[in-house]
Amino acid sequence: MKQVGWIRFIVLALAVVLPACRHHVDAPDSSARWWKGNLHTHSLWSDGDHYPEMIAGWYKDQGYHFLSVTDHNAMQAGERWFRTTTNRGGGVALDRYLEKWGPDWVQRRTRNGTNEVRLRPLEEYRGRLEAPGRFLLIAGEEITDRYLTAPLHMNAHNLRHPIQAQGGTNVLDVLQRNADAVLAQRRETGQPMFPHINHPNFVWGITAEELMQVRGERFFEVYNGHPSVYNEGDAGHPGTERIWDIALTWRLAFLNLGPLYGLAVDDGHHYHTNSVTLSNAGRGWVQVRSRSLQVNDLIAALEAGDFYASSGVELADVRRTKDRLVVEVDPQPGVLYRVEFIGTRKGFNAAHEPLTAGNGMELRVTHRYSPDVGAVLATVDGTRAEYRLRGDEYYVRARITSSRPKHNPGRPGEMEAAWTQPLVP
Q: Which residues of the chain carry a pLDDT beneath 50?
């Protein structure tokens, strides 16, 4: 069994002072309310199959309050034309675009015998969609990098300038360099912005041991609606919730890096046909409690952990005080709910072991950890649940599951769920 000594040495070399943030909210601002948003989706600026105005309009019509379109290594700025003859959305995308936005808005040309449509930059179309207190568009980018066969993707929100993929000498180095680039732009511009790590189980790109060590990073995707990202893991890889608990425990118990918050996102690419095999819109979102629908207020609330992630379950309230985590579900008729409080207690069994191949070579997959890590501390069936700290918890978070199957699921048999952020004493 491997012990935690190796990580203790790493943290001495790598630890940095993070900006101060709250880990509990004693009394939420009475003027604050919940704002629904999606922080990961794609358009024709990269590998999505629809025009960004159409995608943003769909989210607005569905009652979302904010959206960050995060195309691969692109910020929807500058001049770009798209060949309609090779349109990923087929002719239907252009037909719907013309119908909704009109021929005066849709700019077309024929160049060297090829029909093209100009992709409108964010700054040109946001004025026709944004509405104060109703809908906000946040500039974003999916910084798309890799190390060997591992795809390493990191979203960045409210950027002022695009960030080039930084590369690196190993998985952790790539993640750290890209996070550092976002945080450097934040310092240089004074503009609030943040990175978040995407789908760690996509092609099994990121292990818990790598995720836990990224300095300055506060967010990762615990739920991603793309059917190819393996939220649930498999026989040789833990699911993203298990990865979350391992990373949380080590960051709080040994690394002094602060909590990691869990996001739910769509990662939408396909907007014309709904299927369990396609990455559709509307599968995962966050509800952020903020006093306004202003980007600075939203980012402040996110960084304080004053939000929850959802794949369908709606919460009426979440309260994290110094000694309590309280969850109140906004129930739907005929639906049953279960609230599980999950955490790790001090004195837990910290031993862990790597997985090895038949020849004894260690595999680059998340180690096997004790069930003490991320244990279910209490379970409540119903729409209201409360956990009072015993005093020996490193953190406590809540998972809320329902008896209702998810509409347009990302995997067969998926049920609606929600996740609160951890209460850290």
A: 1-22
